[in-house]
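re: that chain from earlier
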Amino acid sequence: MLELGAGIGALVVQTDPGWLHDEIEISPAGDDGNRSHKDVLERRANGRSYHVAVFDGQTDGRYTIWHHGVAHARDVRVAGAAVAELDLRG
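^ sequence. v structure.
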């Protein structure tokens, strides 16, 4: 279950398998020091394996995504009542 609603969305970050159990951090755009994190977990669907971190309950806005202290994506849009996706594979 994801927490979604008016002004609250979610972000699913796809990663390479080598990121399994790593922490990915998220911060509001322009506020790099205000980070929270999720672990990369393996999820299986339709006979396939996916390595993802799921950030639910995110306020509508733009975010930066971090891995090992490095910004991998900036200005990632999360909209209320929606699920955004970010592919960091490869």
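The mean pLDDT is 97.
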